[in-house]
Amino acid sequence: MVVGAGICLAVQQPLNTNLRVVLGSPWWAGLVSFLVGALVMLAAGLASPVDKAIDTTAVTQIPWRYWFGGVLGAIFIGVSILTTPRLGATTVFALIVVGQMLGSLTLDHFGLLGLAQHELSPTRMVGVVLLVTGVILIQRQG
To answer: How far apart, in whole angstroms, are the C-alpha atoms of residue 34 and residue 73?
Structure first.
C-alpha cells in the first residue's frame, strides 16, 4: 500500500502540472486538487464502517499546531506544481524524498510530534548521503 501511495504521488505531479496549464494558475490548480481530494476523503469517511460521522466536539478541541498539516500539504502541492515543468518529475520527486528523509530523521532523532525517539546513527547518515548522491546522478543528462 505504501509503495502504491508513492506511485500516486509520482503520478499526481504531472497531473497537477497539466491542471496548471489548463487553468492558467498553479494556485487554482492546487485548489482544485485539494477540493477533489477533500471530496474523496469525505466519501471514504462516509463509507467507513467504523466512522459514520465526524465528531464536531473533537474538531473544536484540535490543538492549533495540528491545523498546519493542511498548510504543509498546500506547500507540497504548490512547490510540486511550480517545479515539475522545469526540473522534471524524477528530479522533483527525488528531492522530495531527500527532504522527507531529512525531516523524518530529525523528527525521529528528537522524538518530535509524539513520535518514538530513534537516534541518528551512522548507517542512517550513509542512507541520506546515498539519497543525495542519487538525486545528483538523476539530474545528470546522459
So the answer is: 9
User: Does 135 score more than 80 pLDDT?
Assistant: no
Rg of the chain over CA atoms, in angstroms?
Answer: 18
Query: DSSP of the chain, one letter per residue?
Result: -HHHHHHHHHHHHHHHHHHHHHHT-HHHHHHHHHHHHHHHHHHHHHH-SS--S--HHHHHT--GGGGHHHHHHHHHHHHHHHHHHHH-HHHHHHHHHHHHHHHHHHHHHHTGGGPPP----HHHHHHHHHHHHHHHHHHS--
Is 81 in contact with 26 (CB distance < 8 Å)? yes
- For the chain, percent of residues with pLDDT exceeding 90: 44
Amino acid found at 126: V
Domain boundaries, the chain: 9-87, 88-142
44-116-131-88 Cα dihedral, nearest 10 degrees: 30
Predicted model pTM = 0.76
Residue 62 and residue 82: Cα distance in Å, rounded? 31
Q: Using one digit for the tens of pLDDT, what is the confidence trace for 52-104?
A: 677 888 889 999 888 998 899 999 999 999 999 998 888 888 888 888 888 98
